[in-house]
Amino acid sequence: MTDHTDPATGTFVAHRNLLFTVAYEVLGSAADAEDVLQETWLRWVKVDLDQVADHRAYLVRITTRQALNRLRTMKRRREAYVGQWLPEPMLTTPDVAEDVELVESVSMAMMLVLESLSPTERAVFVLREVFEIDYDEIAEAVDKSPAAVRQIAHRARRHVDARRPRRTASPGVARAALESFRRALETGDPQELLDVLAPQVVLVSDGGGVKRAALRPVIGAEKVVRFYFGGTAKHRATVACEPTVVNGSPALVVHVNGELDGVMALRVEDALITGLYYVRNPEKLTHVAAETPLTLR
Fold first, then answer.
1. Which residues, at least 6 apart from 267, have a Cβ–Cβ distance to it below 8 Å?
2. Which of 45, 59, 117, 237 is deepest in the core (most CB within 10 A)?
3. pLDDT digit string, tens, across residues 69-96
4. Computed over its alpha carbons, how large is the radius of gyration of the chain?
């Protein structure tokens, strides 16, 4: 896979970001998306390229099929997951925020909405709504007729629209809220934290049964403050937060007593934080600890 002069390799590398984003949006896991790309590559190098009219469509088809197979297995695992499940956070380059549709589709809030779809509905929704792939191509990828795909797409769109998060604040407003939030966490100031949280803010935390996390969403500013400071104050922790961009949204990489504790993505509306998504499960933090930001697509 290192000889970029080879036609198969060159084509695969040219579409790699697209394929990764498709797999990640279908699966919600960067590690599993990487595995799917490896499986796609192994199948791709066996293809007679002269017999393939549209290389991009063919690669998307392979990736989608492999992602669907893996998602069906993962669904069973997630039913036994301890506490709340959140997608694996992905550091993304700041310019991803300029692609509004992509940002919405990979945001933590939207990824949670996608979790409520069936595997086929999720794949069809991602391919159609995010990447605008035509129905005939999607039908090939999910082994359905174009007419069936249209019905699935309509059903999935209606389901998502009923649960779709509101548009978030502008980047400048979001950064200001992030800075106030960071300062409140680092100084341990409950009032400053209350000032930046919306009254009905929702905190979803994912510890995977390994790290402390709420088993259900915490709703309400005062409850969120008590939950957060109850944990750090009890252990007299020193908190340091590094601003970053996760899934196209403002976020903090949180260190407690010098150790990576988790990644907290924020949802900001009307200058107040309405959603907090705190991933503490160590298995979901490997990409954040080791990789530079991804340019999705």
1. 107, 108, 109, 165, 168, 249, 273, 274, 275, 276, 277
2. 59
3. 999 888 878 888 899 999 999 888 765 5
4. 20
pLDDT digits (tens, 9 = 90+) for 257-270: 999 999 999 999 99
Tokens of 165: 């998060």
Q: What is the mean pLDDT of the chain?
A: 89
Q: Are strands 259-269 and 272-279 parallel, antiparallel or unpaired?
A: antiparallel
Cα separation of 258 and 245, whole Å? 21
What's this model's pTM, rounded to 2 decimal places?
A: 0.86
Q: Is 90 within 8 Å of 106 (Cβ atoms)?
A: yes
Strand partners, 256: 239, 259
Q: What is the pLDDT of residues 226-250, one digit of tens each?
A: 998 876 555 567 899 999 999 888 9
Asked if 182 contacts 252 with a C-beta cutoff of 8 angstroms, the reply is yes
